[in-house]
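CORE FACILITY INTAKE
Project code: CF-77B
Contact: R.S. (postdoc)
Sample description: multi-component assembly, two entities in total
Requested service: structural model of the whole complex
Turnaround: standard
Below are the sequence entries exactly as provided by the requester. Do not edit them.
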Amino acid sequence: MRTFILRRLLQTIPLLLGISALTFLLMQLAPGDFLTTQGENPMISQATLDAMRVRFGLDKPWYVQYFIYLKNIFFHFDFGESFARHQPAFTVLREGMLNTLVLALAAAIVTWGLAIPLGVWAAVRQYGWVDKGLSLLAFLWLSVPEVLSGLLLLFLAANTGILPVGGMRSIDWDSMDSAGKAWDLLRHLALPALVVGLIPLAARMRQMRGNLLDVLRLDYVTTARAKGLDENTVIFKHAVRNAINPLITLFGFTIGALLSGAFVAEIIFSWPGLGRITLEAIQTQDQYVVLGAVMIAATMLVLGNLVADIMLAIADPRIAYD
Amino acid sequence: MTESLLAPAIEPKPASPLEPVGTAPAAAPQSPWRMFWRQFRKSPIAVIGGIALIILYGMALFAPFVAPYREDVMDRDRFFHPPMKLHWVDAGGGFHLWPFVHPTHIENQARFTYAEDKAVVLPIKLFVQGSRYKLLGFLPTDRHLFGVDEPGRIFLLGTDGLGRDVFSRLLFGSQISLTVGLVGILISFSIGLLLGGISGYFGGWIDNVIMRATELLLSIPGLYLLIALRALFPANLPSQQIYLGIVVILAFIAWAGLARVVRGMVLSIRRQEYVAAAEALGMSRLQVISRHILPNTMSFVIVAATISIPGYILGEVILSFIGLGVQEPSASWGNMLKLAQSLRVLTSFPWMLFAPGVAIFITVLAFNFLGDGLRDALDPRRVLGGKSA
């Protein structure tokens, strides 16, 4: 197991290097750079621009810039500087990353917290009206993109005033006690988490239903029933446990979808996460922030896949790695 | 049976990719296309989806004719005008067989509320004269499907903050939003099929290089890759170039997943005996790939293409929504949604959200319906997996 994890971790290194090189190349191929947008400002003289160009290292060819970038990461844990904010890119990204992780985690709780019980419910009442109703809803929901569900929830929030319509904190955040702060954060988190969490819900629910139906046909379930166990014990103690396994794997693989989903929700609900920072940085061509954001997002996705494999190995002892 | 009556209509597709190579198609009463059509018609959902899509794309094709106004025409007296009510009964209690609208004037300047002039009746006329345009790009005409006499206006779905007709913009926007998917699919599936086929057939270092490239692309969350690629083009390009840019970006992102699935299928197909036979008979590798291997992936590819088109449509919607896509004054469903983002619009002028929102929902739903039916009809054993791109 340990060698398996180690090998998988080592495999991600060339992948991440490749992603960083690709992103770097893309930023270089883009017309102009950060200073072009600054150059439109008449307050900044040409001499200042030239000095900045040298200081940021933008006067060097891209591969030299790339190697300097890599060198600084490995030797100084320095991810470059945000041109726009005059801060280390890592500082700019760290907070956004945390906020996005909070959002993605809350969304995952929404997805799995709803998908598993609903899937079990549908499977137990197979072909009943609950099952049919849930299937129909799932099918319709698959056609509602997150932009729409996000705007729809924003529409409801704006018209009812029950939940805040955006941001992460209320204006009087600083004067709240810690319980108040937690409650305030939860209220701001609710809508974006719902938007992100509901996207994969339909698919996960259908998978849970299918898994459970498969498991219920297996011999050991028949045995359990034959022993005279009551139906609840059979389903929840024997069947559901095994039916959940494939969903655990999917948890890691969903991280990519969660990140992309979080991106849209962050824009709609002004959640100060990685997606918003990336968008701003793209618009000002703040290259090290973009680079860092793409790297963080890709790392989360790759680690998600790794975690998925590990979790599956723990959940299902029949799977043997090397 | 009715099938035999209907079948000839879809029969003239001689070189169907679904035709199993090597069988004599002439005498077969159950040609694959006929089997497909019979299966397909059994699913009402798929037929509904197909018809809805024909209507949607037809309206996009004839957008300048169906739309009463041009997409950039502003009515400076009617900002945020709500959708007009169609009436059948006039102020005097007289019943009209054909619906009409009342002209409106602004009632409250600050809140944009409008009052109807009940005394005046503006009958909705068909084939009215309006702005000049070229139908299908080459037929100059000034007729529009419907409208009211000037200076009256008809806003079926209201107007936006610049007094532009939302219904007309929805139609012109569909020309962009709906075709992004078709063009994108053509590009990405060509790349995906070609590279996936090569990868699976040749194996070795070629396979290795292509698969590492797909892994790279699949490791970056879609939207991050999308906007990083978008940075390659300047923000303020003419609409046509932005459109092309969006299509190319979306296709570039989507080919990787498909290439991996196709590679897997090719790997299993190329071990079949008939491939070995074709090679032994001296067929060139290119011929083997194009005649024997790729046709066998077709039913999967058609279904995968159908269910991945909404992904492209949503890609455009999201790019335009965050301001990196189609720019004003051109309309697209994405930049129409962008205008609906503000709280003021959401609370007071909700038609600006619901018009493009419902259009997007119906389109995606129709593609999902169609894809579901195609999946059952094309392969009774069910094709490999769900979404690929």
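Facility notes:
- Chain A touches chain B through 48 residues (CB under 8 Å).
- Chain A has a mean pLDDT of 82.
Invoice: internal transfer
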